[in-house]
Specification:
Helix content of chain A: 55-70%
Strand content of chain A: under 5%
Radius of gyration of chain A: 20 Å
Oligomer: homodimer
Largest sheet of chain A: 2 strands, antiparallel
Largest interface: A-B, 35 and 34 residues
Number of helices of chain A: 18
Strand order of the largest sheet of chain A: 1-2
Structural class of chain A: mainly alpha
Order of helices and strands of chain A: HHHHHHEEHHHHHHHHHHHH
Mean pLDDT of chain A: 82
Shape of chain A: globular
Amino acid sequence: MKVAISPPVVDQPTPEPTLGISPPGVAPEITAEIPKIAAGTQSEVSGLPAGVDLLERLEGICVDQGLSSLAHRLGAMTGLVAADLAAFEVELDGLPSRPEKVGRAASHLLDLGGKRLRPLCLALATRIGDGFDQKGLDLAVAVELVHSATLLHDDVVDLSDQRRGSATARTIYGNAASIFAGDWLLVEALRRVRKSGYLELLDQLLAVIEEMIFAESLQLENRGRLSMDRRTYFKVVEGKTASVFRWAMTAGGVAGGLDRDQQQALATYGDHLGITFQAVDDLLDLTGDSAKTGKALFTDLREGKMTLPMILALERRSELRDLVEEVLALGAEEPIPGSLGRAIIEHLRESGTVDDCLTMARERSAAAVEALQGLPSGPARQALATVAEAIIDRDL
Amino acid sequence: MKVAISPPVVDQPTPEPTLGISPPGVAPEITAEIPKIAAGTQSEVSGLPAGVDLLERLEGICVDQGLSSLAHRLGAMTGLVAADLAAFEVELDGLPSRPEKVGRAASHLLDLGGKRLRPLCLALATRIGDGFDQKGLDLAVAVELVHSATLLHDDVVDLSDQRRGSATARTIYGNAASIFAGDWLLVEALRRVRKSGYLELLDQLLAVIEEMIFAESLQLENRGRLSMDRRTYFKVVEGKTASVFRWAMTAGGVAGGLDRDQQQALATYGDHLGITFQAVDDLLDLTGDSAKTGKALFTDLREGKMTLPMILALERRSELRDLVEEVLALGAEEPIPGSLGRAIIEHLRESGTVDDCLTMARERSAAAVEALQGLPSGPARQALATVAEAIIDRDL
């Protein structure tokens, strides 16, 4: 099912203005130095915490591609937050291990690791200010737990069998256990935030969880609706993905003792980063390498989720509609015929959709970096900028 | 499917000590005045709030049975909390109405009403102290939302089609919407508690939700296990039902400005009340009138849930095992043959199980009343005692 796709061109023409998603001012030197991931650059899984491993792999990729500047900056970041991420893993491991199915379902997911991107960003945000203390640690664990809770619920709603290259908790422990495990992690997350003593963050997190729930609802209602529009897509992504990054950055700012304006700047960064992240994720579902993403290609499409590339391509190519209907009509176990997959990818590519989505992602990444400008400069701010840039061509 | 069962005798012999569930000291005058519900006593649904309607129906039952003392006390209670319950309904109605499926699924359940037993008890607890103010109101709405959230999740886990005499939210809006709706109501509940400003109640509610999750998990793991024991049953009921009543009573005490010992007394009352309530609920599933309970008979058994009467009967009658296996082997849509249902009921009755369960319920009800002794006497304390007594023979 791996379908070859020509590598994306770095400098894309700006999409037509009706796209309505481009923040102003993309710094060309930023998009120019984004590395593309070559096959075979995946490093051995190290004994280091998952987040550190992510950093090292990104660094390896940069070196392989001869992008020494970005590699240098990522290397500096590894040193900057390696201890924070190690402390994070210890704290996360400290979640009470419970023998009930619910406890085991939660542990199953948490033990699979993950990119730890949200806690990484939160830790970096604290380091713009006073640093990463116990309260920051509690908040970092909270944001990872919220993220994990949504995965446990999503896998039930989507009836997913694979997650992070392993069987989903629901396939091992059942749907009910996966639902309750998600609930439990939410409760644990709220407790950590409460423990931190930052009540405004507790209120904000409750609001974020509400936002996520309604974004999920919106996505659910638009399942299989080929006419879903961009506005709805961005509403879903804002609520489902960006809201959590926004909260993580605000939380890092609060824990680091930054002022309101600085917290706001970090929140803006988080918002753009979340959109960038999701846009890349959506592209990877169509054009990625399933061995690296840990899930099958076309998963979103098969679940009837219309993501930005598909929405744009359907607008541009009326012939695509029949092909998409064909995919949606397939049974859950039926593989997508290779010719059908290739035909869809070809439409995505030839209509310029893949390139436009990448451009949008780069613009949002640049906007994220731009949002950092008002913050004290230093290695932590630099590292956050690097994350925003490196996230684009991830293949992890 | 309605199977006749001889009315329970009020004065039961104490069950054998191995039952291990009897709290000491049952006041005989209390158990003696418990009314039994005769057919046809159900009053017209009034225009009053659901909770008031419950009170009036209980009052009507008492009058019909010539139990004027209890009727008198229930009438006094109606006056005592009618305004509180009306305010509660207005506040609950104020939950933002959202057009998404998730919002509609939540509204569907909330609009069906319910007994409002938890908010009623919470309001009465506040009235032992300083009274029912806005904070008490927020807490009362919170406890009803938590309860409703668990119903939305339970119905998905149990694949239930009927709730409160109507289609379940999951059958109308889908399982996913019902799950997310439950999540939303939990978030809303936590927000109300946060709004009340009583942070210790927020911490306790998070602990209660965790307790509920693991009780659900335990119940889930024991589905269809005919060898499930009483200890496990009580662990499930403590975590799933009693914990919420306990919290509601503590919350009422806190909002009413009562001291720690008084809050503790109320919590003990809540704990016993919760067990009483669940024990009666479990009996009603086997011997109730489905037209009044709003759900089909034998629902728990068909879902493989071993409740106390069934556990006791299986211990006492080895022949029952095959009959229960027969029920469990039935398809979801297949009705239970009348002869099979009657045979099971006969075993429950002839083994003394129904009577012993009722005795246990009465003992816990008496223990609930006993727990109130240290509290300031007055109409609110009296009303709580009445609730504990009236709950036994409810058929609502």
